Amino acid sequence: MIVSARLGERTGVDGKLGRWATPALRVSLAVVFVWFGALKATGDSPVAELVGAAVPWVDRGVLVPALGWFEIALGVALLLGRLPRLTLVVVAAHLTGTFLVFVRAPTLMVIGGNPLLLTVNGEFVLKNVVLVCAALVLLGEASERRRG
């Protein structure tokens, strides 16, 4: 890292990466939300069964498209940068809620009851740990800018 005369000011490659990393993370998270939401809203999502298994008391035909539109709205809010702290808290909470399927339908998530042997569905949901962390990083950045 190259540090200029002002303590902590980044220049060169570090400065460019620092300037673009946060917006790139926000946009990529938004794209994932809009894309996955659109699949749910149009009835083309391969995870409809998982959603239904996580929340079996709600009609899947209503839940999946409604969830899709909700995810699209979150993605658009991320893209626009409106109410960033609220949006990111909701994004993190929503993503955390996806782990409910491990409790509600463990046979869809693990093989033979072994939590170390994930099914494809289990791997798909587990990757949300990274997305939750991305939302938390962006939330920290937004809070820091607000205090700024």
From TrEMBL:
Membrane topology label: Multi-pass membrane protein
Subcellular location: Membrane
Residues passing through the membrane, by range: 20-42, 62-81, 88-112, 124-142
Keywords (A to Z) from UniProt: Membrane, Transmembrane, Transmembrane helix
UniProt cross-references to InterPro entries, sorted A to Z: DoxX
Keyword presence, Chaperone: no
The protein's name in its UniProt record: Membrane protein YphA (DoxX/SURF4 family)
Species name: Saccharothrix yanglingensis
Lineage: Bacteria, Bacillati, Actinomycetota, Actinomycetes, Pseudonocardiales
